[in-house]
């Protein structure tokens, strides 16, 4: 920012020019040398400057937008998105509108019939199992409920036509003959079937399939059953294509007695008979959901729609957030404790030695994170180098080996080591600028070593501490590889769960909600930090 | 076209491979590079030697290896959403294949059409048999998750574990156990050792009481467990003596015992069989799909599956490959006794229920992680 200000002032009219221009126009406005009003001329120059500055940062801005803001924003949006449920079960959700989930009775047959229709479409589009995995995040069992029902609905009505009437009914040609022409006699005799067939054919064409070669969805057969039952003169007197088959089927339709959808679904999986499972579908019917955020905060909605705490054996995230903050603070503090004297040494030793030391500080920085972490495992594990050494010199007995790895100690030690350079470097660059005269002056005025350090030197290093602490803290709060390897069960962070939900459980909504919460916590801490330390007091050099 | 041309030009160099090529039809309209995703390590190198190298030699195709299988599902989903799938053939475990198939991210196969028949003419579907657990998944190997234990633990006074329940017996077999940091397998073993009959395990595990029962059993050894999340951790801990017994994939233990000569033995009891194999991502452009199918046809034939067992101790997924399993390529030892499917090892095995876990994974995992953290 300061460079922009400098260039600005250098571009502003020089004193001579200003003097020459210190004339006023008729309305008493100051004029620039070229006769334009000074205010206008200045504003123009300023605008040009701003545009130039913007043009300079534009590539970076564009890069940050494209590679950071949009993807991260898109990812975080997933924490509230819930399109899959309303998109897959639109009719079921509409049918559930009047149903009271707290009533503890099953929804009626219309809801099951709507579920049948939705599931035929979903099964054909192969989205029913995806819906199953989404609903499984709320409660177990949906995956197989939907898988079994998917098999059920695929030939719910077709089965009867095929087995009891004629095998011809699963031939695509029959339907092409009936409805291929559009508004033929068949479409008049069987209006619902024609509409269902047209809708299906449209969908097939969209998918790039040829409807003349595919067996229609079961929905077409469901419509056929309705049409045949409705009867009517156009149907009884039908004489168009496939008239024989239609007449045969019409004669038999009285025998057709399919189970109710309710019974059929419950028979395919008894869990459909549990109102609680319907309550969850009802709860998740919106396009946006708070369920991921609730889960991320160890909360859930009960069947009455109230927000309640999760049972204790399932709550983990608040606990992990607290642990992450606690461990990150501990790591920051131990980095400061270890880094401060080193940074002091670095800035006060003769250049030759301090350069060597600096390389030692930076060397681990250039080594792969995994190598460093594994090295700590070798050193710290119970059969590791340090324990072996302590046992061989007799400090420890063989059965009393220290547990320094696969717990919080392991995480703190390994991460402190890994993050130490981020503390040392800002401290060093700040300490480098503190003039030794200050300390000498303090001492010559009678201060003890401690007073000179505490009252004069230390306050000058606070900006470096601030910078180092915030770097280490922010980095450690998002760490997950090292804790995963050395943290055992007590030393893992919230980021480990985020990584797990991103790459293993594929519950991206929950991962996004956890990440958003983490972001909010960090921003809140940043705000507190700004109030206490003051962000202007942070210096990297 | 380019491929057949290449083949002709290098026919002399290919004499030893000619026998491989005779059944493999030429590949029309096929891409000439492909990206194959696998697990890395010894497993990938066994595939490299058994499949990739002969295939490249035969066809001139250059194969790019990617070692991202452990996050294949997440990456494929992200790729599909971005509309740019850059992988051609992906090696995944069966449960991941089922998920990919469920999500429409993997291509459904026509097994009899698109896979080679057995040499005696048995159709591919029959040859793979029950192992075809998903329409999208072409099984390659049968592996098992099982235990290895150190043979030199002084406190055990010469006893050696021979029963899965010895894992839960801290009195006779004290020491750290290395277990996987997820509910799958651990919950089943806990119930088996809590007196549940093998066939009832999943029925019991479906109830709250059953889950509590499994956790209670695991609680008895919780303080002696070091959890692992990568398959290499248990062998490392066994070699260091950091753990006295631990679960991992049987191939990892094979290399620990036979190749590195560590004082470790296998505990095959209640080993849990699982499958690993190929899927082809959905929606590949035609030339890449043709190449992927051509490769799969070659790499999953009877001889190739048997060849892989020369390099790693996983059982070939085809029934017709079993008699062809020979000796280890470098060690020269007979591989058959090291296969999880060998009758001596498979006296008591546990069948992992994919569908059940697809239903309850999220639920139980939340409970498991909460249990582990406290």
TrEMBL record, chain A:
- Pfam families (UniProt xref): BPD_transp_1 (PF00528)
Question: What's its membrane topology?
Answer: Multi-pass membrane protein
Which residues are in coiled coils? none
- Say if the entry is tagged with keyword Cell inner membrane: no
* Occurrences of domain ABC transmembrane type-1 (ranges): 321-529
Query: Where's it found, cell-wise?
Result: Cell membrane
Spell out the residue ranges making up region: Disordered: 1-26
Span-the-membrane segments of this chain are 53-77, 325-346, 358-379, 412-431, 452-481, 508-529
Spans of biased composition, class Low complexity?
Answer: 9-23
Cite the Gene3D superfamilies for this sequence.
MetI-like (1.10.3720.10)
UniProt keywords, alphabetically: Cell membrane, Membrane, Transmembrane, Transmembrane helix, Transport
Q: PANTHER family per the record?
A: ABC TRANSPORTER PERMEASE PROTEIN, INNER MEMBRANE ABC TRANSPORTER PERMEASE PROTEIN YDCU-RELATED-RELATED
The family note in this entry says: Belongs to the binding-protein-dependent transport system permease family. CysTW subfamily.
Write the protein's name: ABC transmembrane type-1 domain-containing protein
Automatic annotation (TrEMBL), chain B:
Q: Which UniProt keywords apply?
A: Signal
Protein name per the record: ABC transporter substrate-binding protein
Q: Which domain of life is it from?
A: Bacteria
| Leader peptide range in chain numbering | 1-21
A UniProt-annotated Pfam family:
SBP_bac_8
Q: Which Gene3D superfamilies match?
A: Periplasmic binding protein-like II (3.40.190.10)
The organism encoding this protein is: Paralimibaculum aggregatum
- PANTHER family membership: ABC TRANSPORTER SUBSTRATE-BINDING PROTEIN, SPERMIDINE/PUTRESCINE-BINDING PERIPLASMIC PROTEIN
């Amino acid at each position: 920012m300061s460079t922009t200000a400098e260039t600005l002032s250098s571009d502003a009219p020089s004193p001579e020019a200003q003097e020459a221009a210190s004339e006023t126009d008729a309305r008493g406005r100051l004029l620039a040398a070229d006769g334009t009003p000074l205010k206008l001329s200045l504003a123009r120059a300023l605008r040009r400057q701003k545009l130039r500055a913007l043009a300079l940062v534009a590539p970076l801005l564009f890069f940050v937008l494209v590679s950071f803001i949009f993807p991260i924003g898109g990812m975080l949006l997933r924490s509230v998105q819930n399109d899959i449920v309303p998109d897959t079960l639109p009719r079921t959700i509409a049918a559930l509108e009047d149903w009271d989930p707290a009533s503890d009775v099953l929804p009626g047959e219309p809801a099951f019939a709507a579920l049948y229709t939705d599931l035929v479409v979903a099964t054909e589009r192969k989205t029913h199992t995806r819906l199953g995995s989404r609903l499984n995040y709320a409660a177990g069992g949906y995956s197989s409920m939907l898988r079994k029902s998917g098999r059920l609905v695929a030939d719910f009505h077709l089965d009867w036509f095929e087995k009891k009437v004629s095998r011809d009914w699963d031939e695509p040609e029959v339907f092409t003959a009936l409805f291929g022409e559009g508004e033929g006699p068949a479409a008049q005799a069987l209006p619902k079937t024609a509409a269902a067939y047209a809708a299906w054919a449209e969908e097939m064409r969209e998918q790039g399939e040829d409807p003349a070669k595919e067996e229609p969805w079961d929905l077409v057969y469901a419509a056929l059953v309705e049409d045949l039952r409705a009867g009517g003169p156009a149907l009884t007197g039908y004489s168009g294509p496939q008239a024989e088959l239609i007449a045969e089927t019409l004669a038999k339709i009285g025998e057709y007695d399919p189970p109710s959808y309710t019974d059929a679904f419950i028979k395919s999986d008894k869990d459909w008979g549990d109102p609680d499972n319907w309550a969850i579908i009802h709860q998740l019917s919106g396009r946006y959901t708070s369920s991921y955020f609730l889960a991320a905060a160890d909360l859930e909605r009960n069947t009455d729609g109230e927000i309640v705490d999760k049972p204790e054996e399932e709550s983990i995230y608040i606990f992990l957030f607290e642990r992450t903050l606690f461990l990150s603070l501990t790591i920051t503090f131990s980095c400061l404790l270890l880094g401060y004297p080193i940074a002091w040494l670095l800035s006060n030793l003769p250049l030759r030695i301090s350069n060597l030391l600096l390389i030692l500080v930076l060397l681990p920085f250039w080594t792969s994170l995994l190598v460093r972490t594994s090295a700590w495992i070798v050193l710290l594990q119970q059969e590791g180098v340090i324990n072996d050494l302590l046992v061989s010199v007799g400090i420890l007995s063989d059965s009393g080996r220290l547990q320094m790895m696969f717990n919080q100690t392991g995480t703190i030690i390994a991460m402190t080591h890994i993050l130490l350079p981020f503390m040392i470097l800002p401290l060093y660059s700040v300490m480098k600028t503190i003039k030794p005269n200050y300390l000498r002056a303090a001492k010559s005025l009678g201060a003890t070593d401690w007073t000179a350090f505490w009252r004069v030197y230390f306050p000058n290093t606070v900006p470096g501490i601030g910078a180092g602490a915030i770097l280490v803290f922010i980095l450690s709060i998002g760490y997950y590889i090292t804790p995963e390897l050395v943290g055992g069960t007590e030393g893992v962070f919230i980021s480990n769960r985020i990584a797990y939900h991103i790459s293993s459980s594929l519950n991206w909504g929950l991962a996004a909600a956890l990440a958003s919460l983490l972001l909010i916590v960090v921003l809140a801490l940043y705000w507190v930090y700004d109030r206490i330390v003051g962000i202007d007091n942070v210096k990297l050099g | 076209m380019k491929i057949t041309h290449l083949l002709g030009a290098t026919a002399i160099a290919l004499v030893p491979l000619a026998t491989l090529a005779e059944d493999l039809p030429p590949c029309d309209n096929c891409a000439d590079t492909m990206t194959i995703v696998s697990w890395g390590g010894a497993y990938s190198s066994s595939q490299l030697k058994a499949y990739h190298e002969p295939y490249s030699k035969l066809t001139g195709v250059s194969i790019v290896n990617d070692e991202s299988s452990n996050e294949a599902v997440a990456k494929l989903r992200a790729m599909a959403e971005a509309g740019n799938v850059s992988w051609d053939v992906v090696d995944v475990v069966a449960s991941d294949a089922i998920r990919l198939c469920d999500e429409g991210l993997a291509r459904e196969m026509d097994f009899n059409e698109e896979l080679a028949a057995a040499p005696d003419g048995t159709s591919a579907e029959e040859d793979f048999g029950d192992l075809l657990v998903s329409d999208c998944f072409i099984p390659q190997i049968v592996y098992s998750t099982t235990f290895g234990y150190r043979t030199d633990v002084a406190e055990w006074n010469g006893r050696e574990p021979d029963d899965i329940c010895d894992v839960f017996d801290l009195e006779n077999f004290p020491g750290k156990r290395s277990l996987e940091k997820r509910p799958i397998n651990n919950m089943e073993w806990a119930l088996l050792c809590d007196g549940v009959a093998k066939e009832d395990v999943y029925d019991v595990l479906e109830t709250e009481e059953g889950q509590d029962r499994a956790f209670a059993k695991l609680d008895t050894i919780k303080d002696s467990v070091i959890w692992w999340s990568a398959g290499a951790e248990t062998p490392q801990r066994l070699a260091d003596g950091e753990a006295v017994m631990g679960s991992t994939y049987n191939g990892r233990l094979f290399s620990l015992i036979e190749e590195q000569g560590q004082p470790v033995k296998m505990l095959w009891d209640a080993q849990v069989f699982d499958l690993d194999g190929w899927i082809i991502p959905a929606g590949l452009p035609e030339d890449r799909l043709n190449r992927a199918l051509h490769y799969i046809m070659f790499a999953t034939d009877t001889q190739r599956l048997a060849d892989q067992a020369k390099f790693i101790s996983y059982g070939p997924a085809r029934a017709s490959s079993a008699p062809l399993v020979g000796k280890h390529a470098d060690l020269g030892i007979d591989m058959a006794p090291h296969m999880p499917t060998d009758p001596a090892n498979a006296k008591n095995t546990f069948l992992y229920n994919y569908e059940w876990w697809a239903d309850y994974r999220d639920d139980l995992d939340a409970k498991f992680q909460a249990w582990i953290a406290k």
